Each structure stands twice: as C-alpha cells, then as structure tokens.
Amino acid sequence: MVxxxxxxxxxxSGTGTIPRADYERWSRGDLSTRAxxxxxxxxxxxxxxxxxxxxxxCRFMADYLIECLLGNPEGDDxxxxxxxxxxxxxxWLKHLAKTPDGKVVLTEIAGRLAVVYKAADPTxxxxxxxxxxxxxxxxxAVRPFFDSWGTDPILRDAxxxxxxxxxxxxxxxx
Length: 174
Known about the structure:
The protein is mainly α. It has a domain at about 80-174. The protein contains eight helices and two strands. It has helices at about 5-15, 20-25, 30-45, 55-70, 80-95, 100-120, 120-135, 155-170; strands at about 20, 50. Strands 1-2 form a two-stranded parallel ribbon. The radius of gyration is 17 Å and the shape is globular. The termini are far apart. The model has no long low-confidence stretch (mean pLDDT about 95).
C-alpha cells in the first residue's frame, strides 16, 4: 500500500524538483496527506514543475481548509484544527484581496462559506464566524465579497457581528 503522506514528507525534506503529477496525485489524498501538501506548497512552491495553475491550487487550498474548518480535526505539525483553518482562511482572503486574480477565488470562497455556514451546527458556525469571518472582515478590501451575507436571513446576524469586529479591528496597512 502506498503511503502518500510519507511521500510528501520525503518531498518536504528534499531539495529537488517535484513533478506536478506528484503534487496532483498527493492533492487528491486523504486529509493528512493534503495537510502535508498544503505545507509543501507554502514552502516549496518553486520546486513544483511545471507550476500548478493558480485557480486549481486555490481550489485545493479552499477544499482542504474548509474540510478542516468543518471537521475540526485534532491538529498536528501539518494538519490544521478547525480554528487554525479558520484563521488561515481569514489571512488567505486578505492576501487574495491584494492580488489581481484573487477576486474570482474570493467570490467562490465567500459563496462556499455561506453554504457551509447554513448547513453547520452552532459550534461550527461559531468557528466560521469568529475564526474566519471576523478576521477576514478586518480588511476593507474583503468586505464587499461578504455583502450578500448581510441580506440573507440565516447569515445576517453572523455578518453583522463579524463586520462589527472587523470595523473595530481594522487591518493595518503594511
């Protein structure tokens, strides 16, 4: 049996080129494997050849982080707990708002978070609101992507609370 997580860990400790086919195979692995791929792409992106597509990789990141946010796994050196994933999503959304291609991804993630929020239990909704949304809405550039939350009867309260937090804790330019 192939241990994909171990393969990714070998790549993490290496210095050579990582074939895109390996990245793609690993990115379809279980959550533990995808956690390692997430770490690999954060620190060794330039070693993946040819480089993965922006949108494809962003979808991988969103799938991984949202699964962690919802499942709230016990975090480890690679795997994000629910709140760790929420904070990572918030930071990523702020980053995307500053990039020319990020608006498409921001729109997708705001929509996906709306869907999962509506289907979530109260504990998970709290993680989404206080872990991700509050901190994402600290950024003036991210706020318009969540405007529709303010008019949705299920999302409105979370949006109002998160926006109040964001306005009280604005992102510092830097």
